[in-house]
Amino acid sequence: MYHTAMAKLTEDDVLHVAKLAKLTLSDEELQKFQKQLSAIVEYINQLEEIDTSKVEPTSQTTGLENVTREDEVKPDNTLSQEEALSGTDRTFNGYFVVDAILEKDKSDE
Q: Contact at 8 Å (CB) between 37 and 14?
C-alpha cells in the first residue's frame, strides 16, 4: 500500500523553499533539510493513498463550540481619560503621542 522509495527532493528544491521563506541555509542545514523535507513529502504521498471517500469532512472533532459572554461595562474598574493619560507627558487632544512605527518608502514617491 505504501511506497517504499522515498520522495527525494533535490538541493535546488530545498533552496527554492528556503528562498520563499527568506532563509539563508548553510551546507549542513541544506543537507539536513533536504532529508527532512523529503521525508515529509513521502509521508504526504502515503496519506494520499488512503481511501477517504466514505469519510465525512470535519473541521474539528471535539464537539466544542465557542463560548462568549455579553460585554459589560464595570464603572469601578474603568479609568477616566485623565487617569489613563496621567502616566505620560506626550499627549495631543486627549490621545497618547507615540513615535511613528512605519515609514514611507521613498522609492514609492
A: yes
Residues 71, 64 contacting (CB under 8 angstroms): no
Walk me through the domains of the chain, giving residue ranges and CATH numbers: 11-48 (1.10.20)
Q: Using CA atoms, how far apart are residues 9 and 38, in angstroms rounded to an integer?
A: 5
Q: If we measure between CA atoms, which residue out of 31, 43, 33 comes closest to residue 6?
A: 43
Q: pTM to 2 decimals?
A: 0.46
Backbone angles phi, psi at 95, to 5 degrees: -125, 155
Residue range 36-71, pLDDT digits in tens: 999 999 999 999 999 999 988 888 788 888 889 899
Per the listing, cell 507615540 goes with 98
